[in-house]
Each structure stands twice: as C-alpha cells, then as structure tokens.
Amino acid sequence: xxxGGWYVLGLEDATWPxxxxxxxxxxxxxxxxxxxxxxxxLLSDALNGAFDxxxxxxxxxxxxxxxxxxxxxxCVTFSRxxxxxxxxxxxxxxxxxxxxxxxxxxxxxxxxxxxxxVGEPVSIFQNPPPKPYPVEGASLKSLSLAFMFVHEVFPxxxxxYLPVALAFGIVVYTEGVGEYKISSMLTGIVPADxxxxxxxxxxxxxxxxxxxxxxxxxxxxxxxxxAILGGVFxxxxxxxxxxxxxxxxxxxxxxxxLGLRKxxxxxxxxxxxxxxxxxxxxxxxxPTLFMFELGLxxxxxxxxxxxxxxxxxxPTASGNxxxxxxxxxxxxxxxxxxxxxxxxxxxxxxxxxxxxxAVLVLAxxxxxxxxxLLVGGWVLAPGYxxxxxxxxxxxxxxxxxxxxxxxxxxxxxLAVLFVVVIAGxxxxxxxxxxxxxxxxxxxxxxxxxxxxxxxxxxxxxFGVVSLELExxxxxxxxxxxxxxxxxxxxxxIVYAAYVAARDYAREADGVDVEPxxxxxxxxxxxxxxxxxxx
Length: 534
Prior knowledge:
Helices cover 78% and strands 0% of the residues. By secondary structure, it is an all-alpha fold. It has one domain (12-507): Amino acid/polyamine transporter I (Up-down Bundle). It is globular and about 60 Å long. It starts with a helix and ends with a helix. The model is unreliable at 512-534 (pLDDT under 50).
C-alpha cells in the first residue's frame, strides 16, 4: 500500500505489528457485523448459545475474579501507594473537577443506568432467585433493587475499572514505559523485547474485548431508542433511529476532529446536565413517595448484605440465576474495564490514586445510587410494575422502558429527555472508546483523527446491525463472550501495577530498587542511551 493509503487509514507512522493489529481486529469484527447484518437470525442463535455456555461454566470465575480485584484495589488505594500521583510528583491536573467527573461518569456507565435501571429490578421481581432467598426478611421489590445496587453501584464500580486505571496510570504514566498500549502494563513482569508476540496478543485481546463491551451498549441504546420512538410517539421507529444514528455519527465526527479537550469533554458535560434534568422531572411526575421509601428500604438490604449478595451462587439450586445476573454484570464490567480504565488514567494525570478512587468510585456511587433509586422505584411502584412487567415479558427491556414512559404523566417530555441522554451516552462512549482503541493500536497517547474515525465507523456499524437482530438478548451476549479471554490478563495487570508502585515508592524513599525491576530496567536503558550518545 502506498504512503497515501496508510495516511488515509491513519497508519502512516505505525509499525508493521501495529498495522497488523489494526487489520486483524478490524477484519474479525467486520466479519461478525456482516453476519449480523446479512443473517441476523443465525448470529442471534449463535450469540445466545455462546452466552449460555460462558455463563454456565464460567459465571463463577467472573464472580470470584471480581471479589479478588476488589480486595486488591482497596489494599492499594488505602495503603501508602494511594499517595502516588499519576504522571509523577510534579504532574498537574489537566482538567477541572467537573469536567473530569463528567468524562469519567458518562464514559464509564453509558445508557445502562436508564436501560438496566428499568430492566433488572422488574426482571428479578418477576423471576426471583431460587428459594430460600439470599436475604431473609426483605421484600421481593427491595431485594430486586438491592441486587441492582450491587451490580451497578457498589462493589461493581470498584472491581473492574479501577484495577486497569491504576495499572495504566502507574506503569504507563508514572513509570513512563513509553508505548501507550495495554500490553505495556505487563512490561515489568513480561519484557516486550523478549516476548513481542505475547504483547501483540494482549493488545489484540484488549481491542476485541473493548469492542465487545461498547458494542453491547450501542446495541442496548439503539434498540431502546427505537422502542421509545415507536412506543411513545408512534413513529416509524426503525427509520427514525437510523436517522438519529446518522446525526449521532455526524456529531461524533465533529468530536473526533475537536479531540479530547473540546470534543469529549464538552459532550460529557452536556450529557450530565440532561441527566440531571431527566432525574428531576422523574421526581416531579413519578410516584415520588414510593420511589424514596422503596429506595431507602432497598439501600438497607444492600448495605447489610453486600458481601452475601456479591458472592451469591446457590450451587444447590437448579438453573444459573446468579451466573446470569452477577456473572453477566461482571463480564460486562470486564469488557468495559479495558478502554474505560485506560481512558480514566489518561484524563487523571496529576491526580493521586486516592483522588482517582474518589472520582471513579465514590462520586459515581452516589450518583448511580440516586438514579437507580429513582428509576427502580418508578418502575416497581403500584400501577407501573404490572404494565411494565407485561411489556418486559412480551418484548424485552426496550419495550418495558417505552411502556413505563407511556403510563407516566408527561411521559412524552420524559421520553425526549431519555432519548437525548441515551444519545449523549452514545456520543461520549463512542468518542472515548475509539480514542483508546486507536491509542492502543498505534501506541500513541493522542492518536490521529483519521484512525479514530475508522474505529468509530466500525462501532457505529455495530450499533446499526443491532437493530436487525431478532432479540435483545443476543446483544447482551457480546460482553461475556469477548471479555472471557481477557480476564486471564487482569490479575497479571494488577500484579504488574503493584510491582511498579512498590519500585516507585522505594525509589522515592531512597531505597535501592531490586535488579530486574521495571525501574532498574529503565535506568539501565537510560544509561545505555547516554553511553551511545557519548
């Protein structure tokens, strides 16, 4: 290919392994998308079958891995390593606190707060865990909402994003390993020069898992927008949703050219404003008293029984209830952890590990708790749970959301806000995802707009393809299926981050660094370079 062709793809300065990474990942995902577009029934059946197999046999692994990662993250954050500053002791924050929080929140949680905030509590209420329930004495509605808190408030927030964010921030920024890749986090324990094929495979697995995670959310979002536009407004939902995706695509391309500071940051800030408006309107027009009373009761169930619910598997019962819920959620978090964690590290330079814990865990915990309390209480309220549950059982979560809006006073106004919020989530998630996927591909902290645009087109195509799939369940299969191979690397990444943090802390304390460590390797490389210059 001529240099002009590489330029169009944004690969003119890429190495041959990086170009191979781009083409292999792109070809694999385009093949999957093409099957979904041409043979949606075939892809739906295949994805649903793979989903059942992964969660049946590996649901326990996701649950166990989540618990291990949570313990490790808490130990690092509240030990002396929590004072380490991403980028080094002299690094300055690049973004103000509101912009920082906005980017982390809108990128890290997507439209799942609205979609699963309706879908999960009602689904669990209709199909609860096998008796005896994991929490005795709790009402089924409170238990349903409490499981939602476990899965998307805490400990879910601390288990998956933060390990990758810590590892990326410590190894890539604070220690300065050079290449901006997921595999760079393993440099201290698996040298890239000795095992280049292994590092290339890690980056490929990271890209594929990231695409699976964002494609899942795009699929949820596109089907939900179609259901709202058709169910609430009686519009030709499919055609209009394609139009909305075209508009989102245009906004996305503008954001790509504007870059991180003007594009992603401003889209995230605007989305946060619309989230606040939607929740405020829901408080006014919804079953307000019931929302707050149920939310507080469910909060008590959640806080009193968090560990029990987090590790609940009930192996003596028939079926795979826990794997299909907790296992699925942890798999989704795992798929998203790669690009969200690395993106959080990117926008957190100049912040300490404890500050990053606050903005990635503590603040989002409060925000997601409030939103799920309101949304869950709304759809579980008397007069709502019946029609919403019927729509859910008949046509899935998107239809349930549309039904909830249609039976709510001023539901059409709320529906407009929901569509705007979902569109905002799509733009910010798509922006950040392609930013990090492109960065991983090229090993560049600020990847060029041309390469990002190609990855954005691929992900947008996945969102459109999802409209052709016959069932909503097929979309949710992508995360656990594509995240499973990458879970093997997560523990290694956390260990590598610990090694780097330990070496950095020892150097700061004036203690000699062990031979063979990351810092000693860097010092030796620096000495070699200096000798060559001489």
